[in-house]
């Protein structure tokens, strides 16, 4: 525990870094956030805004997501700007009987943890979402799944942090970290050095680079996601939708290979539909590919044929910070002291941003956290290596 | 005109020319002599781009005395190339360019097709820039280019009486053309004044023919008694569903309107132009290096000056997209690219080719100097952007006003991208095609920031909107052999 207020540097102005800065600044901590480009110029500005609860693996993952959802209930009133938080409810769409069977076990697990996911047949699903294609075999429904505008959220966190005394510095690239007596002592950037007691690594897909600056090897790699944006139209979708293949792609990559990546669909407050997304390992390449775009369009128009008439106005791609077990890396490392990880949320960073910020702030300022961070420790990967 | 469709398409070509204005024509003229598989794609229904615009008027134009000999060359080229045994896709838009030189395109029936070229020549030209004022989105307010297109392609006057404003030489040409077509011009307003033009006097020496052309336009206007008002800007366009009147006023040194100098014009058409911005969406999307050069008209594609090859190998950029300088530079660059490609394919004698290229290189430098003159003539000063009224709409699609943008800048957002994210300026249906360059100019006018910091434009495929259904392979296969 630290007795005086430590000087804290957050590296990364994505949803995670700004959330951490918000929760720290609100408690009166001395925070400086460093971002190499603009705020939300990484994955947080190139993603969907789903706060999908029913897609999370039962266990710690689900526990984090539920705690995060609770925080959203306050955040959308507290944060400056309009973060477009909406409890729209979510549906997972099945297109084949095989998918239905594969998902049954998953649903049972969820129900066992008290998550009230209901199963809908084709007619029931169509009643909820009239534009669904009649060929679908059914869907699950969970009323608490929600959505948010991820860019507005990131900017809202940043502005709130600023209003509470944090310094938000963009266009500043972190180049190195100085260590003294086994403690971090300063962050070196292209705009000069920043002395600090604590460094939080929230550099998203670049988090491995930052960790390497203090000699730590972490398995965060970029996993590209491409998205298609349609013109704004009157409400077509009431809920957020994902296909059953999405869950398969996330947790059983082998299964996804033969079945495709699975898709997600949401309509923003502005009326645009966000149709996502691919899951590819292509290094730091953020380009869109004709194959990726076509795959998304083929799958989404099959589920909602009405989409065929809408115009694509934009495509983009973001780099999810992927970890091998799909869980983020959170918390203090053993060496050097003062180096804290807050990265690796892969496809869940928006959903998990509030709770991540809160827990990291608690850990730094009080040494205790509402939810234990053990399951998210960086050494889980090293331990795994040793036992196998 | 032959009606083409995507069925004629081969899956692979030696050379694909995207955009066939002057630059594309010049390249095609040389390349078609070597028995190569050449594909030309243009979104217009004719060859020749901005300068020729309409092929069906070719015959009339032939009889007419053509002031600018380059137009005559253009018409001849267009005719000769349209008759060659090569594939030409009219009314077809290129939407994206990907590694391996794969091209994604869509025709008028909204089918998306892919094909590939060993070499790509991108010659997509330029479009007009805007300086927003109150009411600039009312129907009846149009760009000088749009007014020209109306007359050239459809033979229609913008209105019985047209008010012409903005900066640059196109205003005079337009006003003269309107008069020639028996229309009326209430006045020609020039944002700049003679003083500004004296400031660029040193650039005039290279541009005698253009100045003579300008003088001819001017004398035509004089003869018809059209007032030409220097240092006069447009304060407001007024009208509900159609332009009814325009308020103009003289400008002070800071480009603010001088009280008491207002004039009201009752007119249904206002044509304005403030220079050009290169159509570099495709090269950006493909990943070519770009740079900002004010003398060349803003953001342009970087090229090897000897070959016109971009930072991507076998991908060439020619014409206005490497710097605004008019048809002659486009013509020269198209030829340079063609000879360079033939050289890479080892189809031409090396030393002879070198001599060709050297000559073209010097001709090109000369035209670049003319370009600097042209762009200076069109220049809108920083203070003009600073004095845009808060109520003025900047982004038409999302209805974002100057006031919204000013506030965001005051909040500390100083880049195009961050302002886009906070205000949604440029996130609407047109994806910032019009307001993107405007937002850049506003930011640079207000903050005086470095262009690289204010932000390089970013573009993704598809570079223009298309229905989702167009991407469905199942649909397209049945149509394609
Ligand atoms: C297509 C797609 C769809 C998605 N959909 C969803 C969804 O629906 N719901 C959901 O919860 N999640 C979703 N995600 C995941 C979500 O986007 C990420 O988990 C989240 O944005 C990660 O946030 P971050 O702050 O860790 O990373 P980022 O937003 O990438 O932020 C990291 C920041 O660090 C900066 N940085 C990097 N290196 C340095 C350096 N050396 N110096 C200074 N700054 C540096 C970067 O510029 C960047 O801004 C999706 C992702 C993608 C790609
Ligand atoms: C509105 C306007 C009016 C002009 N009027 C005059 C004038 O009156 N006199 C004068 O001297 N100069 C005029 N110019 C300048 C003119 O641009 C140059 O003189 C010269 O014609 C430029 O040749 P280019 O080949 O570089 O470009 P352009 O002539 O502009 O040709 C570009 C071609 O590319 C095509 N294209 C663009 N994008 C795509 C795509 N994605 N897919 C397929 N095809 C595409 C276009 O249809 C066009 O045919 C005008 C320019 C503009 C923008």
pLDDT averaged residue by residue of chain A: 92
CATH homology superfamily name of the largest domain in chain B:
FAD/NAD(P)-binding domain
| N- to C-terminal distance of chain B | 23 Å
- Main beta sheet strand tally, sense and closure of chain A: 8 strands, mixed
* Morphology of chain B: globular
Beta-strand content bin of chain A: 15-25%
The ordered string of helix (H) and strand (E) elements of chain A is EHEEHEHEHEEHEEEEEHEEHHEEHEEEHH
- Give a quick account of the main beta sheet of chain B: strands, pairing sense, barrel closure: 7 strands, mixed
Integer count of domains of chain B: 3
Helix content of chain B: 25-40%
- pLDDT < 50 runs, ≥5 residues of chain B: 55-65, 476-481
Please give the CATH architecture of the largest domain in chain A: 3-Layer(bba) Sandwich
Layout: helices, strands, pairs:
The complex is a heterodimer of chains A (388) and B (481).
Chain A: E1 7-11, H1 15-26, E2 30-34, E3 50-51, H2 60-78, E4 90-94, H3 97-112, E5 118-120, H4 122-128, E6 138-142, E7 146-147, H5 150-163, E8 167-169, E9 174-180, E10 183-189, E11 192-195, E12 198-201, H6 207-212, E13 221-230, E14 240-243, H7 244-251, H8 253-259, E15 264-267, E16 273-276, H9 290-303, E17 311-322, E18 329-332, E19 339-343, H10 349-366, H11 379-387
Chain B: E1 12-18, H1 22-31, E2 38-41, H2 49-52, H3 58-63, H4 69-82, E3 87-89, E4 92-98, E5 102-107, E6 112-122, E7 126-128, E8 141-143, H5 144-154, E9 161-166, H6 170-180, E10 184-189, H7 194-199, H8 208-223, E11 228-229, E12 232-238, E13 245-250, E14 263-266, E15 269-273, E16 276-278, H9 281-286, E17 290-293, E18 298-301, E19 315-317, H10 327-344, H11 350-378, H12 382-386, E20 393-395, E21 400-401, H13 402-410, H14 416-423, H15 435-447, H16 451-454, E22 466-467, H17 473-479
The structure holds flavin-adenine dinucleotide (2 copies).
């Amino acid at each position: 525990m630290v007795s005086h207020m430590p000087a804290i540097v957050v590296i990364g102005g994505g949803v995670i870094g700004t959330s951490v800065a918000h929760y720290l600044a609100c408690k009166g901590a001395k925070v400086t956030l460093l971002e190499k480009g603009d705020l939300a110029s990484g994955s947080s500005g190139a993603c969907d805004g789903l706060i999908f609860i029913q897609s999370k693996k039962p266990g710690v993952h689900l526990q984090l997501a539920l705690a995060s959802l609770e925080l959203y209930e306050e955040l959308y009133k507290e944060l400056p700007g309009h973060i477009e938080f909406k409890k729209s409810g979510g549906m997972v769409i099945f297109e084949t009987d095989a998918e239905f069977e594969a998902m049954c076990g998953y649903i049972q697990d969820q129900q066992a943890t008290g998550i009230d996911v209901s199963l809908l047949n084709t007619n029931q699903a169509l009643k909820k979402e009239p534009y669904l294609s009649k060929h679908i075999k059914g869907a699950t429904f969970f009323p608490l799944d929600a959505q948010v505008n991820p860019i507005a959220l990131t900017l809202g966190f940043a502005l709130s942090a600023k209003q509470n005394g944090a310094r938000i510095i963009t266009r500043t690239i972190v180049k190195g970290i100085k260590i003294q007596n086994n403690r971090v002592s300063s962050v070196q950037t292209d705009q000069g050095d920043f002395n600090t007691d604590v460094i939080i690594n929230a550099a998203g897909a670049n988090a491995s680079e930052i960790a390497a600056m203090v000699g730590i090897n972490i398995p965060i790699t970029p996993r590209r996601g491409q998205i298609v944006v349609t013109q704004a139209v009157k409400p077509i979708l009431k809920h957020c939708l994902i296909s059953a293949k999405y869950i398969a792609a996330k947790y059983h990559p082998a299964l996804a290979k033969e079945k495709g990546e699975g898709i997600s669909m949401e309509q923003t407050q502005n009326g645009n539909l966000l149709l996502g997304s691919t899951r590819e390992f292509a290094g730091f390449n953020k380009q869109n590919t004709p194959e990726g775009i076509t795959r998304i369009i083929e799958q989404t128009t099959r589920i909602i044929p009405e989409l065929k008439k809408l115009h694509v106005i934009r495509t983009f791609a973001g780099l999810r910070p992927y970890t091998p077990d799909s869980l983020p890396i959170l918390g203090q490392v053993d060496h050097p002291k003062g180096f804290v990880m807050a990265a690796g949320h892969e496809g869940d960073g928006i959903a998990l941003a509030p709770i991540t910020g809160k827990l990291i702030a608690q850990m730094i300022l009080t040494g205790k956290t509402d939810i234990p961070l053990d399951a998210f420790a960086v050494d889980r990967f090293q331990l795994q290596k040793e036992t196998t | 005109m032959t009606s083409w469709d995507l069925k004629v398409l081969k899956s692979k070509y030696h050379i694909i020319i995207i955009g066939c204005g002057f630059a594309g024509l010049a390249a095609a003229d040389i390349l078609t002599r070597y028995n190569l598989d050449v594909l030309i794609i243009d979104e217009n229904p004719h060859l020749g781009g901005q300068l020729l615009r309409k092929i069906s008027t070719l015959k009339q134009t032939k009889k007419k005395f053509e002031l600018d000999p380059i137009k005559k060359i253009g018409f001849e080229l267009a005719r000769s190339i349209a008759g060659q045994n090569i594939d030409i896709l009219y009314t077809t838009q290129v939407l994206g360019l990907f590694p391996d030189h794969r091209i994604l395109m869509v025709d008028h029936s909204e089918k998306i097709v892919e094909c590939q070229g060993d070499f790509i020549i991108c010659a997509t030209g330029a479009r007009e820039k805007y300086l927003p004022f109150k009411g600039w989105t009312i129907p009846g307010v149009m760009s000088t280019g749009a007014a020209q297109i109306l007359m050239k392609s459809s033979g229609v006057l913008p209105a019985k009486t047209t008010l012409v404003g903005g900066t640059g030489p196109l205003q005079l040409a337009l006003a003269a053309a309107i008069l020639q077509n028996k229309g009326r011009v209430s006045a020609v307003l020039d944002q700049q004044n003679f003083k500004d033009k004296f400031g660029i006097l040193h650039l005039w020496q290279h541009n005698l023919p253009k100045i003579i052309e300008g003088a001819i336009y001017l004398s035509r206007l004089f003869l018809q008694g059209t007032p030409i008002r220097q240092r006069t800007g447009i304060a407001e366009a007024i009208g509900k569903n159609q332009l009814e009147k325009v308020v103009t006023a003289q400008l002070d040194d800071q480009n603010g309107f001088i009280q008491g100098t207002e004039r009201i014009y009752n007119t249904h058409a206002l044509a304005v132009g403030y220079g050009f911005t290169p159509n570099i969406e495709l090269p950006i999307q493909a990943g070519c290096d770009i740079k900002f050069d004010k003398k060349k008209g803003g953001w342009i594609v970087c090229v090897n000056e000897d070959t016109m090859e971009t930072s991507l190998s076998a991908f060439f950029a020619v014409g206005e997209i490497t710097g605004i300088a008019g048809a002659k530079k486009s013509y020269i660059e198209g030829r340079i690219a063609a000879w360079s490609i033939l050289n890479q394919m080892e189809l031409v004698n090396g030393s002879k080719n070198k001599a060709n290229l050297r000559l073209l290189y010097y001709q090109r430098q000369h035209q670049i100097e003319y370009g600097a003159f042209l762009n200076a003539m069109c220049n809108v000063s920083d203070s003009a952007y600073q004095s845009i009224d808060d109520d003025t709409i900047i982004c038409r699609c999302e209805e974002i006003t100057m006031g919204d943008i000013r506030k965001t800048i005051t909040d500390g957002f100083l880049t195009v991208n961050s302002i886009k994210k906070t205000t949604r300026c440029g996130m609407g249906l047109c994806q910032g095609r019009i307001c993107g360059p405007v937002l850049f100019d506003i930011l640079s006018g207000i903050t005086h920031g470095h262009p690289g910091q204010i932000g390089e434009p970013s573009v993704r495929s598809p570079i223009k909107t298309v229905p989702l259904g167009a991407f469905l392979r199942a649909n397209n296969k049945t149509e394609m052999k």
